[in-house]
Specification:
The structure is a single chain. Strands 10, 11, 14, 17, 18 and 19 form a 6-stranded antiparallel β-sheet that branches. The protein has a 5-stranded antiparallel β-sheet with strand order 12-13-9-15-16, with no helix packed on it. 12% of the residues lie in helices and 27% in strands. The chain has helices at 3-18, 33-41, 47-50, 54-69, 106-110, and strands at residues 126-127, 137-138, 142-145, 152-153, 158-166, 185-188, 192-202, 212-218, 224-231, 248-254, 278-279, 300-301, 312-316, 323-332, 339-347, 350-360, 365-372, 377-380, 389-391. It contains 5 helices and 19 strands. The protein is of the alpha+beta class.
């Protein structure tokens, strides 16, 4: 036989063997059954490398293929033993090991698969997006328009939005109309940082793996910003709204030209409730400075909070070189009892003065401090004993509060 013919025969024999043809193609098997069993125990297909003769090697391959059936119990792990499937005559059972691909649950792991129940904890392809047209820095009293409508689910649709916020403790802001609306509004009344988070859910109810986060700094750069907020222990729900729903405190900011009675007995006109030189709920936008309407030199009260907690803010962009005074009047408690007031004064966005939790009773008038714009100094007002300067049952003849004194 020529060398070429011999080569062809060997190739044919190899192909037939790999296809699992009868053992008559192979040389006579002289190994004992015990040898075959040992080959299987040695680890299946690896017997090819360690067998003493070709016949023993083929027996080892056959047993190795049988071993591939065991791959059913280990899903993807059985694929590694599949190398013996093509060699052993008994390898016909080996395809059972194809169950391994079913074990390719790996992509679910990327989506936060929960192996305990087979369902995903979260969906990585569902992406929340927050946009706030007002930007990352706003003044107190700004209504923020939160926009989550551009959130998307790559494998379906967004079926639910879930908003949350970390806000200054005194703000008590809520999402309107609700925290599950795609585009709610939120009023940031108190100076400080607000951090909004948004989680969205796809059509199967599976949440996004990570929330979107957006921070807003609430702080004005006006020359003077005065903030009043309060807490009423007797009010079980300070976030509700409506007539008589909470205690009613009022912020006052007076010009040195203000006149009026001397109810506190210090020999000087009090100035509270003067029109036009007291900026308060009845006179929220007085004209104190230039007659030029383009000049931003007048104070303004942003809101009159009549149902509890506040805040109320007064802003003055271009102060005059005079001394202003700040006061708080407890207009009416609506039956909720004493309130604890906090006042903060910011100059060009920097906190210069703060006094917290001053107890006020129904109709008390508290003179808080003075602001000398010439020097930039904020001085607390005190009574003759060095305490808070509070006049009880303060009544102005032009603005009579409700009963109670």
């Amino acid at each position: 036989m020529t060398r070429h013919a011999m080569t062809v025969c060997l190739l044919v024999a190899a192909v037939v063997t790999l296809a699992g043809c009868p053992s008559s193609v192979k040389s006579e098997d002289t190994s004992t059954p015990g040898d075959q069993t040992d080959g299987s125990e040695a680890g299946g297909g690896q017997e090819i490398a360690t067998g003493e003769g070709g016949n023993e090697g083929f027996s080892g391959e056959t047993d190795g293929a049988d071993g591939a059936v065991g791959a059913d119990g280990d899903d993807g792990a059985g694929l590694a033993d599949g190398a013996g499937l093509a060699d052993g005559a008994s390898g016909a059972d080996g395809p059972d090991g194809v169950d391994g691909p079913d074990g390719v649950d790996g992509p679910d792991d990327l989506q936060g698969a929960d192996e305990s129940d087979g369902g995903p904890d979260c969906q990585a392809t569902t992406v929340p997006i927050i946009k706030v047209p007002e930007g990352e820095e706003v003044c107190p009293g700004t209504t923020l328009h939160l926009d989550g409508s551009e959130s998307f689910a790559a494998n379906g649709t967004v079926s639910k939005w879930e908003w949350s916020v970390e806000q200054p403790a005194a703000n008590n802001g809520v999402f309107v109309p609700s925290s599950t609306f795609p585009n709610p509004t939120f009023v940031a009344n108190v100076a400080g940082e607000y951090t909004f988070s948004l989680t969205v859910y796809d059509q199967t109810g599976t949440p996004s793996c990570f929330p979107a986060v957006y921070s807003v700094i609430v702080m004005c750069s006006e020359g003077i910003h005065v903030e009043l907020l309060w807490h009423t222990p007797g009010d079980p729900d300070e976030t509700d709204a409506g007539p008589d729903a909470g205690s009613d405190l009022n912020l006052h900011f007076v010009h040195p030209w203000a006149k009026g009675p001397d109810e506190d007995g210090d020999g000087m006109p009090d100035g509270w409730f003067d029109v036009p030189f007291d900026c308060f709920w009845f006179n929220p936008n007085p004209n104190w400075g230039s007659y030029d309407p383009s000049a931003d030199d007048d104070p303004s009260l942003d809101v009159d909070d009549t149902d509890g907690a506040g805040p109320e803010n007064i802003n003055l962009t271009q102060p005059e070189k005079v001394t202003y005074r700040v006061g708080v009047h407890y207009w009416f408690d609506h039956g909720f009892g004493p309130a604890h007031a906090t006042v903060r004064v910011y100059l060009y966005g920097n906190l210069q003065f703060e006094v917290t939790d001053v107890e006020l009773k129904n109709h008390d008038m508290w003179e808080v401090c003075s602001i000398d714009w010439t020097t930039g100094k904020v001085t607390p007002a005190t009574d003759k004993n060095g305490g808070y300067k509070i006049t009880p049952c303060y009544h102005n003849p032009y603005y009579m509060p409700g009963p109670g004194c």
